[in-house]
Amino acid sequence: MSTSPLENPAWAALSGPHASFAEQKGQVLRYPVDVSPFLAVPDHPDERVWHDIADLIGPGASTLVVGAVGTPPPADWTVEAELTGVQMDGSAAPAVADAEAVPLTEADVPEMLELVARTKPGPFLPRTITLGAYLGIRRDGVLVAMAGERMHPPGWTEISAVCTDPAFQGQGLAARLVLAVAAGIWERGERPFLHAAETNTGAIRLYEKLGFRLARQMQFGAYRAPSR
């Protein structure tokens, strides 16, 4: 059994506060594909776990598994990518509201998707905004930075999609937005956390300066099912 919901955050979210999003086959859960690419397996899956994943995603489809599956994929699967990330605990991060950080709505999604395409902070899809609150900073009416909420294990909320237009980097906008999103999380009586690629040392240093601490490594794997 996990001692913390953060050990298996996608599973804890989809079987808990985000259960209304969950699609299930057998023992595996996932978000709708226009919300998030994440798929979750239980802490101790049985030998049918890859069959359940295939049944859920469909022939020839790919998925992004959060955490270790426990067994490697069958030989007829394609491993598209495997990434080691770090999970960072924001229990010591302060809550700092920001007057310039404005709530983003579904009407802003086209502009948010354009910003994500320019900055590549990680998965952000047409309905990702439904997972939680998103804040943005505009300059001359143009969205130049944003951050928001993604996975929601019990008692915690993940900060995600932290990005700044390259023309506005170096001004501290990402840091301000992370703390502003954290303020909303703390206001609900929850704690913030986030993930970063292990190789993204610049982002990790920034988050450490904001009060986040390294909690654990996390595995992310992109896998494609056989076509039939």
Automatic annotation (TrEMBL):
<keyword id="KW-0012">Acyltransferase</keyword>
<dbReference type="InterPro" id="IPR000182">
    <property type="entry name" value="GNAT_dom"/>
</dbReference>
<dbReference type="InterPro" id="IPR050680">
    <property type="entry name" value="YpeA/RimI_acetyltransf"/>
</dbReference>
<dbReference type="Pfam" id="PF08445">
    <property type="entry name" value="FR47"/>
</dbReference>
<keyword id="KW-0808">Transferase</keyword>
<feature type="domain" description="N-acetyltransferase">
    <location>
        <begin position="99"/>
        <end position="228"/>
    </location>
</feature>
<protein>
    <submittedName>
        <fullName>GNAT family N-acetyltransferase</fullName>
    </submittedName>
</protein>
<dbReference type="InterPro" id="IPR013653">
    <property type="entry name" value="GCN5-like_dom"/>
</dbReference>
<dbReference type="InterPro" id="IPR016181">
    <property type="entry name" value="Acyl_CoA_acyltransferase"/>
</dbReference>
